[in-house]
Structure formats: C-alpha cells, structure tokens
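[Discussion] Sanity-checking designs against the backbone

I'm trying to build intuition for which residues belong where. Below is a structure token string of 126 positions. I'd appreciate it if someone posts a full sequence so I can compare it with mine line by line.
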C-alpha cells in the first residue's frame, strides 16, 4: 500500500509556471506507475500525465502536451509535474495517483489507479 501527498499548488498568472510534487510512502515506490489527473469545478476528472514504473515511458493529454512534464525521483519517492505556460483553463484540483505493477504500458484511465492523494489546488488567473 502507498500513501500520496501532493504539494506545490497555488495561484499563478497566465503564462507562469508551477511545479507540483507528490510524495509517496512505502519502500516499493519504484514498482508503481504514477499519474496526475485534474478536476475543475463542475467537470469530470481528466487525465493530465503519467509515467511508468521505470520512468522510461510517459504520456500526456493533448491539452498539456508541450507545456507539462512529468518526472520521478525514486530515491526521493516523489513524482513531479512541471507546468509551464499555464492557462486559465488549467485551473483545477490536481491529484496524484499510483498503480502497482511493472507494466511497460503507460496507463491513462483513472480506474486503473489504485491509490490517490488528497489533491492540490492550482488556480491560474488570466
């Protein structure tokens, strides 16, 4: 089992940057694929980015591709989401998620992830 704690959210102007962090408990972090999802008010939760257990494969939603970068540091049990060129439509609560297993495939569906953090608010002012 793993527990996830997100941090790094806040208020930023459009065009600015933020880096979200997700710290995971447990000794087998390197066995987990990790992902970021987000949920805006009145909208369903949507996929943002994911990285597989090895860190060699990642995938991004089209609406963040080229602006966001997901990475992981297994020594620190942490996954990051670097967000650049932020837009007002990026405003949402961002959730970190974990999926156990050494799959080569990058999972992008929320139902595939077993563990979730509490979320961190990102607000982009236009």
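Best answer:
Here's mine. Compare freely.
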């Amino acid at each position: 089992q793993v527990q996830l704690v997100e941090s790094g959210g806040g208020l930023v102007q459009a065009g600015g940057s933020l880096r979200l962090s997700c710290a995971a408990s447990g000794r087998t972090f390197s066995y987990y694929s990790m992902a970021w999802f987000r949920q805006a008010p009145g909208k369903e939760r949507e996929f943002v980015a994911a990285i597989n257990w090895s860190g060699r494969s990642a995938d991004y939603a089209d609406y963040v591709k080229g602006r966001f970068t997901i990475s992981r540091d297994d020594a620190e049990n942490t996954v990051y989401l670097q967000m650049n060129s932020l837009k007002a439509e990026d405003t949402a609560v961002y959730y970190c998620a974990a999926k156990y297993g050494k799959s080569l495939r990058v999972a992008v569906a929320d139902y595939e992830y077993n563990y979730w953090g509490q979320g961190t608010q990102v607000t982009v002012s236009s």
